[in-house]
Design brief:
2 domains, P-loop_NTPase, GTP-binding protein, six-stranded antiparallel beta sheet, seven-stranded parallel beta sheet, binds guanosine-5'-triphosphate, 13 strands, globular, 306 residues, Rossmann fold
């Protein structure tokens, strides 16, 4: 049955900083059950949309927006794509939009506010509690982090360090007096043994390499043709965590098969077996542009056999 075209379609915006848990939360929502015939929109900051591979949505109703952060190209891609989807006779019943980790969700929510076909259901902001003190104090990441929190109607706090609950909920309440604040997960993920982590992910779609640099942020995607020394790679990523905000990608390790999904966010590196056909191996790194970031990229290139 096709949805009634006179009814407004709810748009849920899922925002939050790089690595804050947006894709993990979106997958949990999909597992719990979203309305049939929903449209999922995912947008990574870089030109490679790794999130599109990581979202477990077995439907062709998925829109991948690349070319950088959607909130920077708002007038174009996103508004046009949503309008196109809404013009279809069999238009989506609900839309779930995962923003890039550097987007200001308020600018995206504005699309729903001016649309006659959409209504804003929620603006969710994921927060990695273990990184909150860092972002609060960091002049580079702080503005984005604050704007994301300010725009939220619901804040989901995960990886809450022990003893930080009062401090963090008070801080979040000061930054956004009206949003609902929920605590999701008190664990810090490094404590989860690797063999107990979730099932293989990703399907090995081809990936492309184009560096993007906007407003002090830089994103680069590196082909990783040779199997890497995992210890060396981890040490490199952690050693540059002052300028590296996020890394994720598919690659081979020297000591283990099959292809692995590597995730670096905050001060943690995790590995997970990647499903599907062998596929290309790429690592996407997002950080603060500058000489130090470029040195990291050169080191990663030599490690990955580029
Ligand atoms: N313990 C714990 N780990 C989490 C949680 N949510 C996400 N993670 C881990 O944090 C890392 C980043 O999670 P993602 O869901 O990819 O984060 P994201 O916000 O989509 O990342 P970007 O799209 O790159 O900005 C992954 O290694 C996840 O397993 C959580 O609630 N608890």
């Amino acid at each position: 049955m096709s949805p009634n075209s006179s009814e407004k379609v709810p748009l849920t915006v899922i925002g939050g900083f790089l690595g804050s848990g947006k894709t993990t939360f979106l997958n949990a929502l999909i597992r719990e059950g979203i309305p049939e015939h929903s449209l999922i929109v995912v947008n990574d900051f870089g030109d490679i949309n790794i999130d599109a591979e990581l979202v477990d949505y077995r439907d062709d109703q998925m829109l991948q927006l690349s070319n950088g952060c959607i909130c920077c190209t708002l007038g174009g891609t996103l508004a046009e794509q949503l309008a196109k989807a809404m013009r279809l006779a069999d238009h989506p019943r609900a839309i779930f939009l995962e923003t890039s980790g550097v987007a200001d969700p308020a600018r995206i929510a504005d699309i729903a506010k001016v649309s006659t076909r959409l209504e804003l259901a929620e603006v969710i902001c994921l927060v990695d509690g273990s990184q909150a003190r860092r972002h609060q104090a960091d002049r580079f990441t702080g503005d984005t982090w604050h704007a994301q929190l300010y725009a939220a109607t619901r804040i989901l706090l995960n990886r809450l360090p022990s003893g930080e609950e009062t401090h963090l909920t008070t801080l979040l309440r000061q930054l956004n007096p009206t949003a609902r604040i929920e605590i999701m997960d008190r664990r810090v993920p490094d404590l989860v043994p690797e063999q107990h982590r979730s099932t293989p992910v990703g399907n090995g779609k081809p990936l492309y390499h184009i560096p993007v640099s906007r407003g002090g942020w830089k994103s680069v995607s590196l082909p990783m043709n040779a199997p890497v020394d995992a210890e060396q790679l981890q040490a490199l990523l952690l050693g540059y965590r002052d300028v590296l905000l996020r890394a994720k990608g598919f690659l081979y390790r020297q000591d283990r098969s099959p292809r692995q999904l590597l995730q670096f966010s905050g001060d943690r590196v995790t590995w997970q077996p990647a499903a599907g056909s062998p596929g290309r191996c790429q690592l996407v790194c997002i950080g603060r542009s500058g000489e130090r970031f470029d040195v990291l990229v050169a080191d990663l290139q030599s490690l990955g056999g580029v």
